[in-house]
Write a structure and sequence with these properties.
The protein has about 90 residues and is an alpha+beta fold. It has one domain: Alpha-Beta Plaits, CATH 3.30.70. Helices cover about 50% and strands about 15% of the residues. A 3-stranded antiparallel β-sheet has the order 1-3-2, with helices on one face. The longest helix is centred in the last third of the chain and has 21 residues.
Length: about 90
Amino acid sequence: MKQIFEVKNVKCGGCANTLKKALLEEFGEVNVDLEVEPRKITLEIESEQEAFLKLKLRKLGYPLVTDELGLFSTATTTAKSFVSCAIGKIDNP
């Protein structure tokens, strides 16, 4: 079923490109809305895949808005998002 999730740290097209590529294999096409704040991603997902999605997003540096992160985890995901963004900019055709 198609669902929408609000994510943190998504700033630009590089971030969106990283999310689309990283989630493509498990979830198919992912739409990233850069026009709203907080940013939203839309994808096909079953309820049993939500924990995997949450973990994958954290590893990329883009946790869900609803994730409760401590100070260290917040700093870590922010740093990871900068790297993911840079990779997304480089990989963007």
